[in-house]
């Protein structure tokens, strides 16, 4: 389980890595609220709040989407969660880091760090 605020980052330090077909790393939905979490608007007097997507490499969707943060050239942070009228919405993606400075990395499978879909969806994480 990822930390509820910071998410979780996995760092694989190795000489060589080969991910076979149908193999891979999956950090989908394992991010925390992060620096670009969607924020709640409205809701006063029984009115429904807006649904807001989490931000990361770009602004989150909705009226109060999360802010942009992170480095587009080195995306290593976790994605941010969205927000809805009853509290925190869908989770952002986690982060997967592979470091093989003296070897090779072959990916025939997948490495994923997607945010959870939904109206108040989370942003993707970093790979």
Walk me through the structure.
The protein has 127 residues and is mainly beta. The chain is 0% helix and 20% strand. The protein contains no helices and eight strands.
Shape: elongated
Percentage of residues in strands: 15-25%
| Structural class by sheet pairing and helices | mainly beta
Overall mean pLDDT stands at 75
The H/E string reads: EEEEEEEE
Tally of separate helices: 0
Helix content: under 10%
Give the oligomer, counting copies of the same chain as homo and different chains as hetero. single chain
- The total count of strands amounts to 8
The stretches of 5 or more residues where confidence is low (pLDDT under 50) are 43-49
Taking all Cα atoms into account, the compactness measure Rg is 16 Å
Sheet with most strands: 2 strands, parallel
Head-to-tail CA distance between termini: 18 Å
Strand order of the largest sheet: 1-6
């Amino acid at each position: 389980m990822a930390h509820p605020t910071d998410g979780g980052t996995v760092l694989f330090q190795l000489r060589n890595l080969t991910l076979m077909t149908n193999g891979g790393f999956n950090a989908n939905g394992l991010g925390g609220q992060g620096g670009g979490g969607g924020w709640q608007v409205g809701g006063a007097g029984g009115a429904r709040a807006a649904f807001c997507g989490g931000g990361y490499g770009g602004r989150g969707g909705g009226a109060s989407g999360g802010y942009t943060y992170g480095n587009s050239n080195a995306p290593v942070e976790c994605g941010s969660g969205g927000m809805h009228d009853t509290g925190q919405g869908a989770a952002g993606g986690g982060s997967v880091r592979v470091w093989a400075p003296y070897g090779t990395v072959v990916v025939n499978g997948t490495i994923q760090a997607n945010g959870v879909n939904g109206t108040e969806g989370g942003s993707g994480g970093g790979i």
